[in-house]
Inverse folding.
């Protein structure tokens, strides 16, 4: 039993034309224009082509590649934050020594404020019109 959508040249030709149009679409050709005549002759709709193109554009390999990149970034972030937490924990164990230089938590935060302010002053000196 033949369907109406088999088109003027039969199902075999229709299948071939369908395949050609899908490949044109996959390589970015203006298939709606260049394949219009063949699509009309074989009763192939733009929706059919677009569905097939979307189906083929999502191969499993590209999906898993994206996941593995995302996973490796997350792993690297986790490793780094664990390392940072370990360093912070070790530094927090240092007691205030009353002797300079001291690396206790309070002295370190005080020093970091001083360094930050110094950096701002140096920046202003080097670029006097930066904030003008
Ligand atoms: Zn201290």
């Amino acid at each position: 039993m033949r369907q109406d959508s088999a088109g003027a040249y039969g199902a075999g030709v229709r299948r071939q034309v369908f395949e050609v149009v899908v490949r044109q679409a996959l390589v970015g050709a203006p298939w709606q224009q260049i394949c219009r005549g063949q699509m009309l002759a074989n009763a192939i709709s733009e929706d059919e082509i677009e569905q097939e193109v979307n189906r083929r554009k999502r191969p499993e390999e590209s999906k898993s590649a994206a996941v593995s990149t995302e996973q490796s970034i997350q792993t690297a972030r986790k490793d780094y934050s664990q390392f940072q937490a370990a360093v912070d924990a070790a530094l927090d164990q240092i007691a205030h020594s009353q002797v300079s230089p001291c690396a206790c938590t309070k002295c370190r935060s005080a020093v970091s404020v001083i360094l930050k302010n110094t950096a701002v002053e140096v920046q202003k000196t080097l670029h006097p019109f930066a904030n003008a």
Summary: The chain has three domains: 4-56, 64-93, 94-132. The chain has a mean pLDDT of 81. The helical segments are 11-26, 31-34, 36-41, 46-56, 60-92, 105-126. Residues 60-92 form the longest helix (33 residues).
